[in-house]
Amino acid sequence: MKRTVVVLLISGAFAFVIACTSRVELPPRNLGSKIYFIPTGDFPTDQMQQLADYYHRRFGLEIPILKSIAVSVTAEDENRRQLVAEKLIGDLRNAFPELAADPKAILIGFTSLDMYPAAKQWRFAFGWRDANTRTAVVSTARMSLHYRGQPFWGTSVKVRLRKMVTKDIGILYYGLSQSDNPKSVLYNSILGIQELDALGEGF
Q1: 25-198 sits in which CATH class?
Q2: pLDDT tens-digit map of 69-125
Q3: Backbone angles phi, psi at 106, to 5 degrees
Q4: Torsion of CA 93, 98, 104, 110, to 10 degrees
Q5: Domains of the chain by residue range
Q6: Which residues contact 81 (CB under 8 A, 6 or more apart)?
Q7: pLDDT of 10-69, one tens digit each?
Q8: In whole angstroms, how far apart are CA 136 and each of 22, 24, 85, 173?
Q9: Which end of the chain, N or C, is less packed with Cβ atoms under 10 Å?
Q10: Which run of H or of E encompasses 110?
């Protein structure tokens, strides 16, 4: 029985790796669209480069990493000691006005600081996007959290971050819709770290 369980776990892990590394061919929503990664503050660029390499392997995307920008004072909520997601999106667009004006440019910013969206009564957010301006931000501040009974797969900050960025790429670049399926990376109700870990990495 134990041997059967081990075999099943190994098989599942192998299938998970194949699903995450196999090349996916999807047409972009707008032909000629391009994604740009933007670090904010002290977000590590090597982490972003790993992501860019991953999306090149998986989707064939060439994603430039732009220069890091400082987080503006106006994006900080001193009372909550968090960043305001909408204002951070504004910082990204103000820092690169030509790209902000380009209807085919998609901006994805990264922060290691905690954030929340002013538009929602949320304690925090792993990510926030504005589809109208083709801009998103992702925060890793709470991606290292642990909980009782968490699975051994998909629990690293690297994997958690990748899921949030893949969701943004699916929606902003490929024009996919959010999903009610809690196993889909496009799931529309990621309320905490457990929901994030339960996601797959496929559309």
Answers
A1: alpha beta
A2: 999 999 999 999 999 999 999 999 999 999 999 999 999 999 999 999 999 989 999
A3: -115, 120
A4: -30
A5: 25-198
A6: 114
A7: 334 434 444 454 566 787 777 789 999 999 999 999 999 999 999 999 999 999 999 999
A8: 25, 22, 9, 11
A9: N
A10: strand 105-111
* Tokens at 10, concatenated: 């190994």
Is the model's pTM score more than 0.70? yes
Give the type of residue at 79: N
**What SS3 string covers 43-105?**
CCHHHHHHHHHHHHHHHCCCCCECCCECCCHHHEECCCCEEEHHHHHHHHHHHCHHHHHCCCE
Dig out the tokens for 89 from the structure: 């999106």
Amino acid at 105: A
Q: Please say whether the beta carbons of 81 and 192 come within 8 A.
A: no
Only one residue has tokens 């009564």, namely 121
Cα 97 from Cα 90, distance rounded (Å): 10
Euclidean distance between CA atoms 26 and 93, whole angstroms = 27
